[in-house]
Amino acid sequence: MTASTAPAGTPGYGKGREALLRAAVDVVAQKGLRGLTYRAVAEAAGVNNSLVAHHFGSRDALIAAALRWASEQSIAASRLREAAEQEGSFTEALLELLLEDPGLQVFQYEMILEARRRPELAGPVAELYENYVNALAEGLQAFGVQGDVRIVARTLFAALDGLVLQYLAGVGRDQIAAALEEVHRVVLSRREA
Q1: What DSSP element (H or E) covers 8?
Q2: How many other CB atoms sit within 10 Å of the CB of residue 36?
Q3: Bigger pLDDT: 9 or 59?
Q4: Which of 67, 98, 132, 145 has its CA 20 to 30 A from that of 77?
Q5: What is the CATH number of the domain that holds 161?
Q6: One domain for residues 47 and 74
Q7: Which among 82, 184, 188, 182 is positioned nearest to 145, based on CA atoms?
Q8: Do 99 and 47 lie in a common domain?
Q9: Cα gap 98→92, rounded to integer Å
Q10: 174 shares a domain with 90
Q11: Does the pTM of the predicted model rise above 0.85?
């Protein structure tokens, strides 16, 4: 079947794997990890469920790949590497990420919680956090932050992580924005004179 004759909603050639990862994230964000089945992912992606097995081989492989994909998408969308230099747009960029795709964040928190019950997810979850900290550390270092940049990055990311969780739990946008502004002031204070 060519791209022009593919049914509506069917991912194009080369995009099937990414469509399945997006679908896995959406399924977990809506139904929790218990709702993650090949059938649910295939239905959300608009494909046959054998395609899920073909691309990932196992549910655990799908979960690990979706966790990596979600981290990559979230880091790219939040522009953590550039966040410190964004001055006035720092807060707006992070809030935009939350408003644009809260399911991405919900999925990641679901995986973090599940890792407490399933030790095999501990490695991918630790990798998730390291990816975020590394991205933020790169941005802080380029911005001229002083001291142990990795510790500063981990501390700042803990604040960002907590604020995202609070936002998802219903804390108001204005309160989160004010807290993000304070986080940004801390970053600015650690910068080289």
Answers
A1: none
A2: 20
A3: 59
A4: 145
A5: 1.10.357
A6: no
A7: 188
A8: no
A9: 10
A10: yes
A11: no
The CATH number covering residue 18 comes to 1.10.10.60
Residues 135, 169 within the same domain: yes
Question: Is 167 found in the same domain as 72?
Answer: yes
Give the ranges where the chain is alpha helix by DSSP (H): 16-31, 38-45, 49-56, 59-78, 80-83, 89-100, 102-117, 122-143, 149-168, 173-189
| Percentage with pLDDT > 70 across the chain | 83
Number of folded domains that form the chain: 2
Give SS3 for 169: coil
Cα separation, 134 vs 71, whole angstroms: 12
Q: What is the pLDDT of residue 172?
A: 92
Q: Strand pairing partners for 191? A: 145
Gap between the Cα atoms of 20 and 55, Å rounded: 9
In whole angstroms, what is the distance from residue 120 CA to residue 46 CA? 29
Q: Rounded CA gap, 186 and 182, in Å?
A: 6
State the DSSP code for 9: T
- CA distances for 163 relative to 68, 106, 186, angstroms: 21, 13, 15
Q: Please give the residue range of the domain that contains residue 11.
A: 1-57
Same domain, 46 and 70: no
